[in-house]
Amino acid sequence: MATSTLLSLTCTPQSMLHSKHKSHTQSSTMSLLSPQLGQKCLYNPLRHNVSSPIQVKPKRTHVGGLVKASMNSKDVHVLSKEHLAVSLAKYIADLSEKYIREKGRFTVVLSPGPVKYLRKLVEHPYCDTIDWAKWHVFLVDERVVPKTNVDSNYKLAYDGFISKVPIPPLNVYTIDDSLPADGAADVYETTLRRLVTSNVISTSAEFPKFDLLLLDMGPDGHIASLFPGYPAVNETRKWVTYLTNAPKPPPERITFTLPVINATSNIAMVVTGAGKADAVYSALEKDPTGDKLPIQKVNPEGDVKWFLDKGAASRLYK
Questions:
Q1: Given pLDDT bands bounded at 50, 70 and 90, which one contains residue 34?
Q2: Displacement of CA 51 from its chain's centroid (Å)
Q3: Residue 152 burial by CB count (10 A; 0-12/13-18/19+): exposed, middle or buried?
Q4: Whether this model's pTM surpasses 0.85
Q5: pLDDT band for position 10 (50/70/90)?
Q6: Bond from prior residue into 250 cis (ω within 30 degrees of 0)
Q7: How far apart are CA 283 and CA 276, in angstroms?
Q8: What's the pLDDT score for residue 35?
Q9: What is d(CA 117, CA 68) in angstroms, rounded to the nearest whole number?
Q10: Mean pLDDT throughout 203-214?
């Protein structure tokens, strides 16, 4: 198979050339906002081979050259990691165009796991065709550590994606890392409520309704920082809650609650690796009995699309 030629792409919207980093004159809630400065969108993709989509037999349907299945009314795609990134980029770009056309903005919630699969969004054609200035970016959960810490979800998202596209710095909403977990959760929820009041975020009943949530899960079926057996999973009133004793370090976390996750218009479940195959099976195929895993409690008002690699889907196919 022929390889692509080396490319060098620079995407520098005019608005970014004249933008300057605003001084911190906002109220205390605005301390949540991203500290990064405006920048150019630079990307130099390497030469690569694109393998053909994974060929496995689904239990239900086979569409074209990739696996697409409807499992218990769930929309599931199984692809190679390269095709997963390509498919995810198109999916996100299409949603971005739709919501910006309809509402003039696009609200996106990131999880750390899927960030590495956003690499195609910083390539042509998306880098210079998506209206990045209309994006508003949030984190579904965060470790309560400084933003420069290697454990910070913000740092991971910034290094892997946000720094590569010209999203306005004030449109990226992060925690106040100077506060303990309970205070950081309260202030983050206050910011969400302010953005609902100003119509940046839509609402559904009593909860914010984001346009897109990119979600991963752990081998134990946890999502965001909602772990099996922890009280935060059962929170039904708060928008943002916190933990001080997460089962793996760092122990202090803040996280969106299940009602907020389930109010989202579109959820992309991006799950890779054979270590998560049992949890994927439990979410998609297993008839749940007794206590449910957090992933089994994801039952959104909107659409859920699963993006899996062969390892994560290995228990779904014969």
A1: very low
A2: 25
A3: buried
A4: no
A5: very low
A6: yes
A7: 11
A8: 42
A9: 19
A10: 95
